[in-house]
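User: Hey, my collaborator sent me this sequence without any context and asked if I could get a structure. I don't really work with proteins. Can you help?
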Amino acid sequence: MHIRIGIAGLFLLTCGTHTIEKGFDSLELGDYRMAQDFFHQVLREHPRDFRARVGMGKALLQEAYASKGDTVLWRRALTHFEAARSIQPRDELVALLSECRLTFGRGLLHRGDTLRGLESISRALAYNPHCTECLNLAGIVYFHLGHGDKAQQLFEKAVRIDTSDAMSFFNLGMMYWNSNRILEAHSTWLRGLRHAPDDEELIYWFAQAEKALQESSSE
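Assistant: No problem. I've predicted the 3D structure and written it out in structure-token form, which is a compact way to encode the shape of the chain:
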């Protein structure tokens, strides 16, 4: 089947490509407002343009950072990234979505919006189930919400995924310590110290567990 584009159609395609390039040039210069204008011009005519969706998401992220984490801008950026993923499910975009969801969730937690923060972090985990930072942060939130079993499961998963992550060992050890399972806390923190021997929190709490075990054995 032969498809005829014609001069006018070719002109429109070329203009769209040039407009997107202008948007990315503006992004490199830090001019997120102008970048948004260029990407918006393309999306108004071609809402399924992958590069324009990604560019708009990045431009909105730039503005969100400049506005010290404006949640509305974050949500708009995520909308564009998720739309881009529905157009082309590329691996690098999934990684970007996970990182953005994590950062957005962390910001919500910092503002005291616990439930929405947990929701965003859970979505980050859905994009990247091996994100130990997501697992640890979600575990901490669940612990403070009174769901200790869920928190422990998340910390245990984080330890299995990355045996060099000191934070995972610290958090899992604290779960055992708070349940008065001193020997398990001691062995968990010892495992953590083998991978992070200079971690001050691990050193301190391992010493506390060591002391508690010595005291219990002398009674």
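In plain terms: Residues 130-214 form a domain with the Serine Threonine Protein Phosphatase 5, Tetratricopeptide repeat fold (CATH 1.25.40.10). You can pass these tokens on to your collaborator as they are.
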